[in-house]
Write a structure and sequence with these properties.
Belongs to the ABC transporter superfamily. The protein has 364 residues and is of the alpha+beta class. Helix content is 23%, strand content 36%.
Length: 364
């Protein structure tokens, strides 16, 4: 089946093997025109490999790749209508910024007047006009990455591919360039596929996130949907900083309806909306640190006592690490309400904000 007209990039049953090692496994992914998709996952999950397959830098073992409705599975990278921005800036050190931007266009035989127009447009969008006569050695890391983005931008392509472009920058520069990339997408409305292991980048930039593990897409959805309704324990633990709290226990069906128990803890689930038919047995309850309340238990369907082990001031809020029975957990609270180390506190949460996972690790 061919890609539909409003699909910018379509990946169909894509597999990649290195010898006997399966790196990507029968992946299917349709990316709409103008969509910003983030491939997110830990090192070795296959996200950069998938990006390189789309770019034509790796030959796939099976499947098909369409860009703008054209089957490009075996096309050369230069013929795919893509622009790629790498983790390393890969700039020519002996050339000025202007010559770095124009080099690929000159090789492709683009008329001189057109080259000038494209460089002027890219420089304006990326705010690098004062830097055009400088060489890369005279630029900061953020300026170099802007030039690297500009080199893709001047090609006037349909699809931009970003391979961890901000990972070499410090935290402040990452934050600044993240905003600029989002503005760039809003202004251009081109399709963008962005690889990162940084969940903050993924959550802030993406229209949809594809969370990957072991060469398989675990969940593909809008950032808030993945945050609130992770399909399995891996996705739940990977998204969020700090990650979701997990409490091992059992799912039981009693007189008052379903409940989750762990040692002396009992969490009522009478209002919980199950995605599939629950079965009594081992289960894991997940609750995010910011969904737990501290010492203000009025109206909580569930509350319990916890002992504070560590307090981490974070500025506007504070992370509190403690123990709930035999289970470790973290709570995010406003800094002015932070408890002291060694204090016993009451914690509570609404079970509707929790995620329940069965013995197989999938969401209940």
């Amino acid at each position: 089946m061919d890609a539909t007209a409003n699909t910018s990039v379509s990946i169909q049953e894509l597999s990649l093997n290195f010898g006997t090692v399966s790196v990507l496994q029968s992946l299917n992914l349709d990316i709409a025109e103008g969509e910003f998709i983030v491939l997110l996952g830990p090192s070795g999950c296959g996200k950069s490999t998938l990006l390189n397959c789309i770019a034509g830098l790796l030959d796939i073992s099976d499947g098909r790749i369409f860009i703008k409705g054209k089957n490009v599975t075996w096309e050369e990278p230069k013929d795919r209508g893509i622009g790629m921005v790498f983790q390393s800036y890969a700039l020519y050190p002996q050339m000025s910024v202007e010559k770095n931007l124009s080099f690929g266009l000159k090789v492709a035989g683009t008329p001189k007047e057109e080259i000038g127009k494209r460089i002027a447009r890219a420089a304006e969008i990326l705010q690098i006009e004062p830097l055009l006569q400088r060489k890369p050695a005279a630029l900061s890391g953020g300026q170099r990455q802007r030039v690297a983005i500009g080199r893709a931008l001047v090609r006037d392509v349909d699809v931009f591919l970003f391979d961890e472009p901000l990972s070499n920058l410090d935290a402040k520069l990452r934050s600044e360039l993240r905003v600029e990339i989002k503005r760039l997408h809003q202004r251009l409305a081109n399709t963008m596929i962005y690889v990162t292991h940084d969940q903050i980048e993924a959550m802030t930039l993406a229209d949809r996130i594809a969370v990957m593990r072991g060469g398989v897409i675990q969940q593909l959805d809008a950032p808030q949907a993945i945050y609130n309704r992770p399909v399995n324990r891996f996705v739940a633990g990977f998204i969020g900083s700090p990650g979701m709290n997990f409490v091992d226990g059992r799912l039981e069906d009693g007189d008052g309806g379903w409940r989750f128990t762990s040692g002396d803890l009992t969490v009522p689930l009478s209002t919980y909306a199950f995605d599939r038919q629950p079965v009594a047995g081992p289960a894991v309850l997940g609750i995010r640190p910011e969904h737990i309340g501290l010492n203000s238990g009025s109206g909580w369907p569930f509350s319990a006592k916890a002992n504070v082990d560590v307090v981490e001031p974070m500025g506007s809020d504070t992370l509190v690490w403690g123990r709930l029975g035999a289970q470790s957990l973290s709570v995010r609270v406003p800094s002015e309400r932070a408890p002291r180390t060694g204090e016993q506190v009451e914690i509570g949460f609404d079970p509707l904000r929790a995620s329940l996972f069965g013995e197989d690790g999938n969401r209940l």
